[in-house]
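My main concern about presentation is that the manuscript never shows what a single data entry looks like. For the editor and my fellow referees, an illustration may be useful. For illustration, here is how one protein appears when written out as sequence plus structure tokens:

***
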Amino acid sequence: MAKQDRAIRTRRAILLAAAKVFEDHGYQAATISQILTSAGVTKGALYFHFKSKEELALGVLDAQDSHFTIPHRPGKLQELVDVVMLHSHRLQTDPMVRASVRLAMDQMATGLDRTGPFLRWSELVRELLEKAQTQGELLPHVIPARTSDVIVGSFAGIQSMSQAFSDYQDLMTRASELLRHLLPSLAQPSVIASLRLSASRGATVYEETQQQHQQQQQQQQQQHETTTTN
């Protein structure tokens, strides 16, 4: 178990170092040597976990939705709002998520498949819209498969603007305004009236997910102790 934990920590350290180097230098200019220096690990340790710079970059890209807990809501449009606002909060506060987003937006990253995060976001949003449609939350004309791409593309643009103007400091406000403009074109008026769309929503949802995570860890610990005792 200790060996496994050490391997997990080493992998995490390498990914964090790669994220910083990619963010500072861009994918094309970044080198394995820079990542090794930043991570403070041997070349053997790095190549044990990642076979190439491309694999490192894909690992950073995957960090956008790694440990991303989606809060369950009875109303699926509120759940969609919370997903967007939670991601915005993580983008402001989590260096790995920030590096992952910038890498996904790096148009100079020749040869790197950057479609993964966009595809996963589109699938998530489409599923929530389909559930919202089933529950009667959407206007009749909405086609979830098309609308999901519009939402994801618009949100990506908002993130790029926020990074350029304020290094994401105004992202929560921009994300809130985006939703206030988009949702009336696809949601029933009665649903819009009940949605919580404030700029502080992301921080609120983040605290909720942290509490849920802590409760799950405590339950797992209790189950482990009970099993060990028996």
